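Hey team,

Filing this mostly as a record. A colleague (T.K.) asked me to run one chain through the structure pipeline before their review meeting, and I want the input and output archived in the tracker in case anyone asks later how it was produced. No errors, nothing strange. Just documentation.

Input sequence:
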Amino acid sequence: MSAPLAGVRIIEMTSVVLGPYACQILGDMGADIVKIEPPSGDTNRNLGPYQNHSDMASLFLNCNRNKRSLVLDLKSEPGRAAAMNIISGADVLIHNFRPGAMNRLGFDYESVRGANGKIIYCATYGYSKNGPYGQKGALDDSIQAVSGIASLQERVLGAPRYLPTVVADKTTALYVVQAVLAALFHRQRTGEGQEIEVPMFESVVSWLMVEHLWGQTFEPPLAGAGYPRLMAEHRKPYRCQDGLYLAVLPYWDAHWRTFCEVGGRPELADDPRFIDMAHRLRNIDESYRVTGEMIARRPREEWLELLGETNVPMMVMNGLDDLIHDPHLEQSGFWQMHDHPDEGALRMASYPANFSATPTSIRSLAPRLGEHSVEILREAGLGQSEIEELLAAGITLQPQDNPSEQQQQE
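Output structure:
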């Protein structure tokens, strides 16, 4: 069985998390991802613990599987010419350069379309080029600030905070994947390529304001922005009697009544403050506070037994390390172990969607810097002498201990 995107070639000119994560997902779906890196490599190659090579650190490994690495110095004319040669035979180009940078390098949409009329050209960066922020640089923290995410923490904690995950990068990456797939579908039907822009700011605001637009949905506004239930002070995992934590959300009216009954407080089901969803929302923080008081009276195992046969949504709270041995993730095969030829045994998260006819797979692990440079340049039609000239000039490179290339030469 082939993967959904088998036969699709995608040229990746990205670094950090947003672009690499998006391209990794497309690679998991079967696309041939050619990652063009500068001689210094993706800036995230050195971030995190590493085993044998400092440029093969954990963060890079988790965003760059199912790819081939080609080093090209795009500041040089031969490097740009080689890149355009490769792009001319590709289906998709994804980059995260700011708008002006690709123009200066000669890889703007019009130039690329001149070499490949059916190319799908996806640009992803901080802000749409159509607005006043268009030329600004952006990283996850700045997008969390400007998009309103940090201010949500202020409503709950009293001071603005960034979420401790690169939510802007990863959210935007999913929009990149959606956009590229939609454009591929359009081209399949019409033969027409196109230019796509996926800005982080607009992507995160679109994602965030689904529920938080709230009263600002209407004009004039019926209330301020912000879904009150999600910003209640006592909305958090509840500490049980034994110090362990449990997530419980008796959301629907039937949930609330069942929870009150099994928790030994049946009278709360008819309390005027909590009688139905509308009243619980108006008194949401008090509802959460009362729920927390009830949870604190019993150990977690007792609650799991009491609620386990009901329809009340509840689950234990995992720490990050707990996820490695979560019984559901273990049984569903979510974690995969693979042997990297240079870095040893690696744990990888599977792509979470399951396809019955075209399953995704981890076919190769993150490449060394330039590991496939010679291989890809040969595929593009460059002769051995041309490749040797690029290597000698430092325009391309390969690992000195590249086993696959040594085997080819033998």
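Quick notes for T.K.: Residues 167-190 form the longest helix (24 residues). The radius of gyration is 26 Å.
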